[in-house]
Design goal:
single chain; alpha/beta; UDP-n-acetylglucosamine1-carboxyvinyl-transferase, Chain; 2 domains; four-stranded mixed β-sheet
């Protein structure tokens, strides 16, 4: 099992380009199942979750041609509607094939998904929405089995709480449903917007994406398309925090900075110095930083996927900080590991209390989930001494080999296999 050795008091110089967002690419790869024609996707990230989705699509009978950061997916010979445990256990996004399979093929059998250990993250809202469109479900031996009698029909879907995945599954199911669908309290995330743009380019009729009310007019067929995946705002945010943590001048390029307004607002309140353009941001040395209080919220609020990283930064800022986690339960599992590195963080229910003015010191730590992994890398980069991070397969799910991508900019990070 791979581990990373991170040298502390790291240098950071130059710039880095942000690659495609895996959280945008995964539902768009799943939506290819809605059509029997070619879907070409560009700007794909080279991360393990993308490889897992490829394996899942291969299992269904997809023909996939890969060339650098582009793939062409053709689903004219889908022979299987079963996603078994071995394929699904590593990635929760596997549930995103449920809507497309039910919509086009009227049946699906999906193992209950796995992925990060950050709470139960149930699929109840997925099934709630798809049931509104006419699907019927039962559970058997750890599988969700879905069937459609005849065709899915447009409906009004009112989510009791926001869910990115359930919104995406509903959209994909509704584009081929008969009649009109309205999704109320829909997720507004840029990744949902990107999915809708791709589906519209394939011939779907979707309006209102980017708002809490999405309208879909069902069509009979989807066609071939060529789509560029948006760049990864969470990876961009991670590297922005890294530059501020290391107190270096650094440029992060090739992403839509508007998608990170909530992060920029927090960093400016902490005292960070930045020059923000439409598709890049330049970080300047900016000490001292000060602690603040924030709450994670659905987009456009502060993203839960940057909570662990900003906590690392808060640990070196002056004074006290607080983070209230509103999205996922059990998403503070990185806290004991950050404390091993010298942080002073206490948890009470869903609030983390961070005492600042700390200096990280290298130690052995264990990654528990994707974003927790990278928070430990950030802490290790700013620590005295060397930090060993175990179980970095979590990290590889969402970050291209960080020892190469970020390592090219100065930090010394070594992978041991």
């Amino acid at each position: 099992m791979d581990k990373l050795i991170v040298n502390g008091t790291a240098n950071l110089k130059g710039s880095i380009n942000i690659y495609g967002a895996k959280n945008a690419a995964l539902p768009i790869m799943a939506c290819s199942l809605l059509s029997d024609q070619n879907l070409k996707l560009n700007n794909l990230p080279n991360v393990e979750d993308i490889n897992s989705m490829k394996k899942l699509l291969y299992n269904f009978g997809s023909n996939i041609i890969t060339k650098k950061r582009s793939i062409i997916i053709k689903n004219n010979r889908v022979k299987n509607k079963l996603a078994d445990y071995d394929l699904v256990r590593k990635m929760r996004a596997s549930i995103l094939v449920l809507g497309p399979l039910l919509s086009r093929f009227k049946e699906a059998k999906i193992s209950m998904p796995g992925g990060c250990s950050i709470g139960t993250r149930p699929i109840d809202l997925h099934l709630f929405a798809l049931s509104k469109l006419g699907a019927k479900f039962k559970y058997k031996d750890g599988y969700v089995i879905g069937k459609v009698n005849g065709t899915l029909n447009g409906a009004s879907i009112v989510f009791p709480r926001k869910s990115v995945g359930a919104t995406e599954n509903s959209i994909m199911a509704a584009v081929l449903a008969k009649g009109n669908t309205e999704i109320i309290n829909a997720a507004k995330e840029p990744e949902v917007f990107d999915l809708c743009n791709c589906l519209n380019s394939m011939g779907a009729t979707i309006t209102g994406h980017g708002t809490s009310k999405i309208k879909i007019k069902g069509v009979e067929k989807l066609y071939s398309s060529n789509h560029n995946i948006i760049s990864d705002r969470i990876v961009a945010g991670t590297f922005i925090i890294a530059a501020i943590l290391l107190n270096k001048t650094f440029i992060i390029r090739n992403f839509n900075t508007q998608n990170l307004d909530s992060l920029f607002n927090v960093l400016e309140k902490m005292g960070a110095q930045m020059k923000i353009k439409s598709n890049s941001v330049k970080i300047f040395p900016s000490r001292p930083l000060k602690g603040i209080t924030l709450t994670t919220k659905p987009y456009p609020g502060f993203p839960t996927d940057l909570q662990a990283q900003i906590m690392t930064l808060m640990s070196v800022a002056n004074g006290k900080s607080q983070i209230k986690e509103n999205i996922f339960e059990n998403r503070f599992m990185h806290v004991p590991e950050l404390n091993r590195l010298g942080a002073d963080i206490k948890i009470k229910n869903d609030v983390a209390y961070i005492n600042g003015n700390r200096q990280f010191k290298g130690a052995q730590v264990m990654a528990s989930d994707l974003r927790a992994s990278v928070s430990l890398v950030l802490a290790g980069l700013s620590a005295y001494g060397k930090t060993t991070i175990n179980r970095v397969y979590h990290l590889d799910r969402g970050y291209e080999k960080i020892e190469k991508t970020l390592g090219k900019c100065g930090p010394k990070i070594k992978r041991l296999t």
